[in-house]
TrEMBL record:
InterPro entries in the record: Flag_FlgI
Annotated localization: Periplasm; Bacterial flagellum basal body
Protein name (database record): Flagellar P-ring protein
Quaternary assembly: The basal body constitutes a major portion of the flagellar organelle and consists of four rings (L,P,S, and M) mounted on a central rod.
Family: Belongs to the FlgI family.
Keyword terms, alphabetized: Bacterial flagellum, Cell projection, Cilium, Flagellum, Periplasm, Signal
Biological processes annotated in GO: bacterial-type flagellum-dependent cell motility
Pfam family, one: FlgI
Domain of life according to the entry: Bacteria
Origin species: Alicycliphilus denitrificans (strain DSM 14773 / CIP 107495 / K601)
Amino acid sequence: MITVPLLPSSAGARALRRLAAFGVLALAAALPAYALRIKEVAAVQGVRSNQLTGYGLVVGLDGTGDQTTQMPITTQAMQNYLQQAGISLPAGTTAPQLKNVATVIVTAELPPFAQPGQAIDVSVASMGNAKSLKGGTLIATPLRGADGEIYALAQGNMVVGGAGASAGGSKVQINHLSAGRIPGGAQVERSVPTPLHDGETITLGLNASDFQTARKVASTINTRIGSGLATALDGRTVQVRAPMDPGSRVNFIAELEELPLPDSTPAAKVVINARTGSIVLNQAVTLGPCAIAHGNLSITISSTPVISQPAPLSQGQTVVAQKSDIQLKQDGGKVIQVPASPQLADVVRALNTLGATPQDLLAILQAIKASGALNAELEVI
């Protein structure tokens, strides 16, 4: 039997904290460091989804459908649908005003290996001038692929994530009312063959072109599964010899995708969104020593009405003129010396010292890149 001496409350608490800290450190040391898996940087070529689209009608709207006088195709599409059901309007009948019907475009994504009978989600968007699709029902709509063949059939009640009301010339709306979604609203009618089991090899396509990553993927496969199985063809593709038996090939791909890759530093890149002013830098971005001068230029134009009154009994007319006042102000820019920044935190700190807005940083980063002080690829989206 082991006897544990009782400690005073304060000493015991400190000892327990030390033991807990030691246990956490030991557990952290025992856990492996997180590393990217092959499935997160590459995918098997040929295993891909396919885009489907179709043209259909949404019915059951509460008077918020298309205005058929401006959208005659809605009336034509509804007449075609009725003719297929054996109903035709008498000759000479005025075209009906279909306030509860809207023409829509239906889109869906056919996942890889989808089989007939499986359900997929569809998105529905108005293509006319319907005010709202809320509460509508999509009638049977064939969805076609790029080859013109029908791969799915969509139908169902729509889910619209918005709300709105209008009265007396006032209108209140939350979110978007002219687009919605039907979860599981399409049924697959035809499968798309994939070349997964064709040939003696499979090809891994990297998500981004990088020779270093391609070399590491091939090296990891050859080290962990078998020598000479993988070959990096270029910076984007890796060819791997795989078993011919379908079951064995699926197991092989499952094990291959779970292989961890050694840590690597990505290519330095700065992504700039010129529309929103967003700037994103990755951890590999470095900054060389440089000097930056930054100043602001503002122009203010104000207009003041000036009234000219005629003299008494002169039968003249009052004239209203505009007096414009233009002011140009330029803040004094100061030269800021930016030291070499080998880490991302240093780069961010150096840019913050400029006191510039994100829109100003767009021009500043482009100028730094042109001077050769920014060691990164600059991408504007």
